[in-house]
């Protein structure tokens, strides 16, 4: 049995109940680069975790290799989970990955997820459709807009248009759309949508490429074009108003714990975890290493009886970069300084 599970777009709480149940029953999980790695903490400790993510900066795994890997695992494992960011059926190559499963007559299920377009609109505080303004939504990829490959119909001009995977070809996308849509068309650029590092930048069709260059916007990013984007204001960005929004936290626990980690994500923080258990840390070492690329932005929060010295030794044992002592404090102290209740601080003190 294989479950194709949409993990949602960034915020780990966006996974569906059905997706959560599938993940908790997995024997092996094949996961993508863009999903929130905290979700992997929900898989059983015995489950094998296999990264099959692709990156614009590297060649990554060939799709045929991934597809064959899924097929072989489904033949030998009781429950396989293919965990994909967003919704597996929206530009997620679901058709390619599921075809050999169907051909072999193997059991499968598809569990939808919240796609990045929905998350961008919701976390911007705007709708995707609006009576009398936008009567529909069109999802496109950046390559579909290159060199006028996909003309925008008159009907689509009255809709919200969301472009996935368009960073690399932004100038060509802009040039294509400018021949079909007004230059002052409002739009939003969304990056790391629904994560604590989320960026939402208002622009117009005429100036969004310049803004991206000035802001050095890289993947993952998504564009939303249409009149509904004019509804975006700084005060509609409710997620950015959360008390810990923009804080990058490495939470150090006696053992990995999804609920403790997501306490901070519900407050708007961007979070990853390590524990005192070296086996757990080795299991997630690749994720931890990638998460600590920009050490200067990380706030380390210690829990229970874990000392700064012990934490630094853990980093050394894992061959990870050291973190300055001034960026390390207890989780209780961190929360108390920010006015959280005693109940909240005590949850991390013992």
Automatic annotation (TrEMBL):
Source organism of the structure: Agrilactobacillus composti DSM 18527 = JCM 14202
Top-level lineage group: Bacteria
GO biological process, one term: siroheme biosynthetic process
NCBIfam families: cobA_cysG_Cterm, PRK06136.1
Keywords: Methyltransferase, Porphyrin biosynthesis, S-adenosyl-L-methionine, Transferase
CDD domains for this protein: SUMT (cd11642)
Name of the protein: uroporphyrinogen-III C-methyltransferase
Ranges for domain Tetrapyrrole methylase: 1-207
């Amino acid at each position: 049995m294989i479950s194709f599970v949409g993990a949602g777009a960034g915020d780990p709480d966006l996974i569906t109940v059905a997706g959560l149940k599938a993940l908790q029953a997995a024997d092996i999980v094949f996961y993508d680069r863009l999903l929130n790695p905290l979700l992997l903490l929900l898989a059983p400790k015995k489950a094998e975790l296999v990264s099959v993510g692709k990156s614009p900066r590297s060649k990554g795994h060939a799709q045929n290799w991934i597809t064959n890997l899924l097929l072989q695992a489904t033949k030998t494992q009781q429950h396989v989970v293919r965990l994909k960011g967003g919704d597996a059926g929206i530009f997620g190559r679901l058709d390619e990955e599921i075809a050999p499963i169907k051909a072999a007559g193997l059991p499968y299920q598809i569990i939808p997820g919240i796609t990045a377009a929905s998350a961008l609109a919701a976390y911007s505080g705007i709708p995707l459709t609006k009576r009398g303004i936008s009567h529909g939504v069109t999802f496109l990829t950046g390559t579909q807009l290159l060199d006028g490959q996909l003309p925008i119909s008159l009907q689509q001009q009255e809709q919200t248009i969301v472009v996935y995977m368009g960073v690399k070809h932004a100038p060509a996308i802009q040039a294509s759309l400018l021949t079909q849509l007004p230059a002052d068309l409002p739009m939003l650029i969304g990056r790391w949508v629904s994560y604590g590092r989320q960026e939402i930048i208002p622009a117009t069709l005429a100036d969004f490429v310049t803004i991206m260059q000035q802001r050095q916007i890289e993947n993952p990013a998504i564009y939303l074009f249409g009149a509904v984007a004019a509804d975006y204001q700084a005060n509609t960005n409710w997620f950015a108003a959360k008390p810990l929004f923009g804080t990058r936290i490495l939470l150090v626990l006696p053992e990995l714990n999804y609920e403790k980690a997501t306490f901070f994500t519900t407050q708007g923080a961007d979070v990853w975890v390590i524990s005192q258990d070296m086996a757990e840390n080795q299991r997630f070492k690749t994720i931890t290493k990638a998460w600590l690329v920009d050490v200067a932005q990380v706030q380390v929060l210690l829990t229970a009886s874990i000392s700064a010295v012990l934490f630094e030794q853990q980093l050394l044992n894992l061959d990870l970069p050291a973190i300055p002592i001034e960026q390390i404090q207890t989780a209780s102290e961190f929360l108390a300084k920010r006015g959280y209740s005693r109940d909240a601080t005590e949850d991390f003190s013992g």
